[in-house]
Amino acid sequence: MALHAAATALAAASGAAYFDALWRVGEDLRLARGIARSRIALALGDRRDTNSLYYVFEDAVRRRDNNDCYVCEGVTWSWNDVADASNRLAHWFLAQNLQRGDTIALYMPNKPAYAIIWLACLAIDVVPAFINYNLTDKGLEHCINVAKPKLVLYESDLAPAIADIAASLRTTNPALKFARWEDRFSTSSAGKEKTAGGVDGEVRLDEGVLSRYSAERIPNERRSGIKWSSPCCLIYTSGTTGLPKAALTLHGRARTAATVWTTLNSFSRSSRIYTPMPLYHSTAAILAVCVGWNAGATVVIGRKFSATRFWRDVRESRANAIQYVGEVLRYLLATPPSEMDKKHEVRLAYGNGCRPDVRPLVWEKFRERFGVRVISEFFASSEGNGSLFNYNGNSFGAGAVGKEGLIVGSFQSKKQVLLRVDPLTEEPARDERGLCIRAGTNEPGELVILIDNSSPYQAFAGYYNNTSATEKKILRSVLAPGDTYFRTGDLLRRDADGHWYFADRLGDTFRWKSENVATTSVAEVLGELVKEANVYGVTVPSHEGRAGCAAIPQSAGPVDLAQLAAHVQLKLPKYAQPLFIRLVKALESTGTGKQLKVVLRNEGVDPALVGGDPVYWLHPDKRTYVPFTRNDWDVLRAGKVKL
């Protein structure tokens, strides 16, 4: 009996291993097929002079005509509707004397008009700059000025923010035109009072105005000569380390991404993708909108993310795939359980930035509670020239941002490389020959990606009108003298099975007591007791390096500081224990869910800088968190206490 039980267990284990092996081979083949398809599509586009992303949409219109293209708040646009609307707008653009290669600034919240405006720009070879609609004042002015636009096109409800800076914008660009968009989603079109704050000389754009323009297709001549290396839009960095930079997004890179993600995630005409992620960012713009064009899929546009409304929108729209960024899956798990949790058609959740958690992982919790079989996590950046993928349908490799099998790994080994980093300078370490040193298995290192500007998928275009920022992202003489790589600024590790895991952002890892501390690892431990924490390193008087500090928002609920102190001392080595806790009203993050650390890190724990937020420290004698006072700060400055 014992022998039979052992044999049965061995067979079960072997079966699981066999299943995992088959799954991994299938994933690898799927990714390889997507890469091959993208190369064929780009080669054909080059030969036929159809490199423009516009033709991807137009091909879908021929196949899909009156089927659903976009759905938003119960309103549906067919592919033909979208084609007609974008053509009318393109003719209006031509009437404004926009020339090929000109830029416009697009300042608008999530709605189908976003994609329609982009298509109109693509039709006439004009480059839209996607401006974060949460920006106001100097940040908004900076992003518009960077793009050097001929026209600013903005949602009617956002007009006051534009009005506040219009005079300043015209000082920089006297010929700048302003157009105010109004449709059924604008407050002023919902029977309410017109939004105030107009700009002198602005043009009002609504259905009545556009109906006077032709819906005829813009001739191919307007797009002739577009190369894969031509820009199709400007997408701004998140601004976690300063003012946002406008990344040049190329037709070739967007088409590659659309083809690869379509194949990897098996998107088709029957796919209905729900995204409440901001359309001004590449995750939604490229990997939902462009993927929708490539696959002929329906894209359901959520006006903005709401954890309480998310599943209702998904059910009502019959979505079968959902998109996430950052902490979205965690926020959905934080909602009260419901008998409706699994009553939907979703088979796939795909996105990036889902922070790992202590076991069970967020992925596993999400899969179990909501019944979503596949989590398709990826790693990429708006300006980057490479990507990692983990199409994950089982527990093997859950939590990884990428996975490489023998097929893909064989030609990626020198293209996407992890480099050992000097923790003090945050520069790649170099050997006696002056070349960089690869990080070992499971050793965190900065991911760098080979630059090949003759390749549509490995070119690095850099930032629009920002040569110095572009140059900072290029690393030379990495594996061979004179080669060039793109610096992601992110630390990852790769295990022996080919799984890639996000470790931290350079600058988020801090050094304390001669040890390197990854903020994500500390945040994971804190996450066992508090809903959310932003971990960073702070300078402390009379001490080398940076001590750990965790900002916890009031929304995380009451914090039992005694329990927290005992917990971190049990779970973390002494050098990684957060010595300071700062209770804040709220945690700031970018529109794509990335926590902002720079201001917190710069303020540190100096009582004069923290703005009245309660700060506690892990007292060196009491070994529990107690209030940190001005007197304690002075004692540290005097060097009378050693942490």
TrEMBL record:
The keyword Ribonucleoprotein does not apply. Residues 57-390 form the AMP-dependent synthetase/ligase domain. The keyword Iron does not apply. InterPro entries: AMP-bd_C, AMP-bd_C_sf, AMP-binding_CS, AMP-dep_synth/lig_dom, ANL_N_sf. It catalyses: a very long-chain fatty acid + ATP + CoA = a very long-chain fatty acyl-CoA + AMP + diphosphate. One of its GO terms (cellular component) is lipid droplet. The chain crosses the membrane at residues 279-302. PROSITE patterns: AMP_BINDING (PS00455). GO terms for biological process: long-chain fatty acid import into cell. It is found in: Cell membrane; Lipid droplet; Peroxisome membrane. It is a multi-pass membrane protein. Residues 530-594 form the AMP-binding enzyme C-terminal domain. Keywords: ATP-binding, Cell membrane, Ligase, Lipid droplet, Lipid transport, Membrane, Nucleotide-binding, Peroxisome, Transmembrane, Transmembrane helix, Transport. Pfam families: AMP-binding, AMP-binding_C. Belongs to the ATP-dependent AMP-binding enzyme family. PANTHER family: FATTY ACID TRANSPORT PROTEIN 3, ISOFORM A (PTHR43107:SF15), LONG-CHAIN FATTY ACID TRANSPORT PROTEIN (PTHR43107). Acyl-CoA synthetase required for both the import of long chain fatty acids (LCFAs) (C14-C18) and the activation very long chain fatty acids (VLCFAs) (C20-C26) by esterification of the fatty acids into metabolically active CoA-thioesters for subsequent degradation or incorporation into phospholipids. The transport and fatty acyl-CoA synthetase activities are genetically separable and are thus independent activities. Esterifies VLCFAs in the peroxisome matrix. The VLCFAs are actively transported into peroxisomes by a PXA1-PXA2 heterodimeric transporter in the peroxisomal membrane. This is Very long-chain fatty acid transport protein. It comes from Rhodotorula paludigena.
